[in-house]
Amino acid sequence: MSETVTDQRTVSGVSIRLEGVTKRYPGQRTPAVDSVDLEIAAGETVMFVGPSGCGKTTLLKMLNRLIEPSGGKIFLGDEDVTGQDPDRLRRRIGYVIQAGGLFPHMTVGTNVGLVPGMLGWDRARIAERTDELLDLVGLDPEVYRDRYPKELSGGQQQRVGVARALAADPPVLLMDEPFGAVDPITRQRLQDELLRIQEELGKTIVFVTHDFDEAVKLGDKIVVFDVGARVVQYDTPEAILAEPAEDYVADFVGAGATLKQLTLTRVSDTELHTPVTAAVGEDSAAVVARAEEAGERYVVVVDGRGRPVSWPSVAELSRTTSVPGTRDDRLPVVGLRSTLNDALDTMLAASQGGVVVTGRRDAVAGVLVVEQVMAAIQSTRSEVRG
Amino acid sequence: MTAAVDPAVDVEPGGRRSGVPWRALALQPVLVLVALGAFAVWRSGAELTDAEARPLGWGALGGTVVDHLELVAVAAVVVLVVGIPLGVLLTRGPFRRATPLVLGVANTGQAAPAIGLFVLLATWLGFGFRSAVVALVLYSVLPVLRNTMVGLQGVDARLVEAGRGMGMSALSVLLRVELPLAVPVMLSGVRTALVLLVGTATLATFIDGGGLGLLITTGINLNLDSLLYSGALLVALLALAVDWVGRVVETLARPKGL
């Protein structure tokens, strides 16, 4: 895959073009998907939303021909893939389903290495790629490579599912309600994870969801479908929230559109506070001195790779001789691409007045406090009124 | 997200082999061996008439057991070669429609009284080993066929879709996903069929098919209890032994990670 950099964004995906794609099932009067034209730019994440039964999943499955279209054409880049051998086509398109769809009788490593294996990669290259991908989705290869899926939590299985889909570096990733079966906090983390991965890789992602908040958060563009996969509106989340094309979209977006603006504002859009950080094992007195000089009451402890470990107060630290490495499992953390909505959720869940924000490779990028979120709400409310 | 904030990171790697019930599995062969030992002791010490001693001689007895096992083995191979592919075929696309018909025939085979099946086939195909094998196959193919189908139908349809969706061919999904996941159910069908075969093969003697049934019928006809009981005991022990081997194979062949 050739990687091109446009606007400082890595793009390794290709564009997708649909021309009059139709699916008729025998014995049904109206087509499930009725002549859809759609163009998806390379490297964009496009969200398919719409009521259940509107044909969005059918349309998605026609992209990798799990469902054979009854009419129309599908292009990947400039290549017409409508008549291509489906098995070979699918090896170029990553596919992620709910709960990962991992094979329970294969280890995590085997699951991830399946598509490279089919493509005839040699053993060493597959092993290397598997480790690289597990690392990419935040699972330590040493720990997880040889485990079986049932030994993983739902969120971890889903991450392996994403790693498996990315294994052969496909330009296109299809995701069919992948995060539907996990709890809200895990879902939020998985979404952050996907945003981070997408920032690194720039695949063309088509993502089906019934959760409009998820669509606003993850999508560069959103397609709102009505019955028969009629495209009602295809635009950026901002535009759809600001100007729903029809009453139908307005209904679908919901009444809380003002607060949905919180979902539009990313953590990276706000001015983050730079905290005093301390490495594990550092001399406590020196850290305390540094914090006092900066006028800080809290210190973010980071590990060797700059990832947050805990968030003790200066008072707590001054009672130790060296900075402890104990991980705080309840440490509130969000990614740079998280929304203010997520940040607020995370603070409330942890009963804390702030969150640690992480950026590339989960390293600390700053700290966000609740006052900043409140200020953002205030400003959007006054914008909407005024 | 970092692994550091994921609360479920430390899922215990559930001991992969700890689920094997070796102790329960050990009981059955011990019982079989004890019973066999008791029989050997009785046989060595018993005072037998000439008519009894000849078929119960060690050599003759061994030959009968081998004959019996031969019937079972040949029938079992045919049952596997017919039952498993047929079961696979009947869960594939257009062939699904034939399922009720084939299961109907297999059900009839099993529901018909075994002795009737043997005699009917013998009048048609002639007496001897071959007819006995055909009758045994008809009688015991159902569990293998049905369990193959049930096992395959029990595989989560989403896993099949995931496999196809990542570019595995239909055959590859069958071989690498569906069959391995169906193995436990299929093997339990095979074990049932084998145990049925060991028991039913005693009827082969009625159509001159040989086996341990010969001891039993001779014992009844000549009113020689020692022959009757010896035959019955050996068949029972053989069935238990086969059942045990089946269980061990099931335990070992069970895919890890399930």
TrEMBL record, chain A:
<protein>
    <recommendedName>
        <fullName>ABC-type quaternary amine transporter</fullName>
        <ecNumber>7.6.2.9</ecNumber>
    </recommendedName>
</protein>
<dbReference type="InterPro" id="IPR017871">
    <property type="entry name" value="ABC_transporter-like_CS"/>
</dbReference>
<dbReference type="GO" id="GO:0016887">
    <property type="term" value="F:ATP hydrolysis activity"/>
</dbReference>
<dbReference type="InterPro" id="IPR046342">
    <property type="entry name" value="CBS_dom_sf"/>
</dbReference>
<dbReference type="InterPro" id="IPR003593">
    <property type="entry name" value="AAA+_ATPase"/>
</dbReference>
<keyword id="KW-0067">ATP-binding</keyword>
<dbReference type="InterPro" id="IPR003439">
    <property type="entry name" value="ABC_transporter-like_ATP-bd"/>
</dbReference>
<dbReference type="Pfam" id="PF00005">
    <property type="entry name" value="ABC_tran"/>
</dbReference>
<feature type="domain" description="ABC transporter">
    <location>
        <begin position="16"/>
        <end position="253"/>
    </location>
</feature>
<keyword id="KW-0547">Nucleotide-binding</keyword>
<comment type="similarity">
    <text>Belongs to the ABC transporter superfamily.</text>
</comment>
<dbReference type="InterPro" id="IPR027417">
    <property type="entry name" value="P-loop_NTPase"/>
</dbReference>
<dbReference type="GO" id="GO:0015418">
    <property type="term" value="F:ABC-type quaternary ammonium compound transporting activity"/>
</dbReference>
<dbReference type="GO" id="GO:0005524">
    <property type="term" value="F:ATP binding"/>
</dbReference>
<keyword id="KW-0813">Transport</keyword>
From TrEMBL, chain B:
<feature type="transmembrane region" description="Helical">
    <location>
        <begin position="24"/>
        <end position="42"/>
    </location>
</feature>
<protein>
    <submittedName>
        <fullName>Osmoprotectant transport system permease protein</fullName>
    </submittedName>
</protein>
<keyword id="KW-0812">Transmembrane</keyword>
<dbReference type="Pfam" id="PF00528">
    <property type="entry name" value="BPD_transp_1"/>
</dbReference>
<keyword id="KW-0472">Membrane</keyword>
<dbReference type="GO" id="GO:0055085">
    <property type="term" value="P:transmembrane transport"/>
</dbReference>
<keyword id="KW-0813">Transport</keyword>
<feature type="transmembrane region" description="Helical">
    <location>
        <begin position="127"/>
        <end position="145"/>
    </location>
</feature>
<feature type="transmembrane region" description="Helical">
    <location>
        <begin position="193"/>
        <end position="215"/>
    </location>
</feature>
<feature type="transmembrane region" description="Helical">
    <location>
        <begin position="71"/>
        <end position="89"/>
    </location>
</feature>
<keyword id="KW-1133">Transmembrane helix</keyword>
<dbReference type="GO" id="GO:0031460">
    <property type="term" value="P:glycine betaine transport"/>
</dbReference>
<dbReference type="InterPro" id="IPR035906">
    <property type="entry name" value="MetI-like_sf"/>
</dbReference>
<dbReference type="GO" id="GO:0005886">
    <property type="term" value="C:plasma membrane"/>
</dbReference>
<dbReference type="InterPro" id="IPR000515">
    <property type="entry name" value="MetI-like"/>
</dbReference>
<feature type="domain" description="ABC transmembrane type-1">
    <location>
        <begin position="65"/>
        <end position="246"/>
    </location>
</feature>
<feature type="transmembrane region" description="Helical">
    <location>
        <begin position="101"/>
        <end position="121"/>
    </location>
</feature>
<comment type="similarity">
    <text>Belongs to the binding-protein-dependent transport system permease family.</text>
</comment>
<dbReference type="InterPro" id="IPR051204">
    <property type="entry name" value="ABC_transp_perm/SBD"/>
</dbReference>
<feature type="transmembrane region" description="Helical">
    <location>
        <begin position="227"/>
        <end position="246"/>
    </location>
</feature>
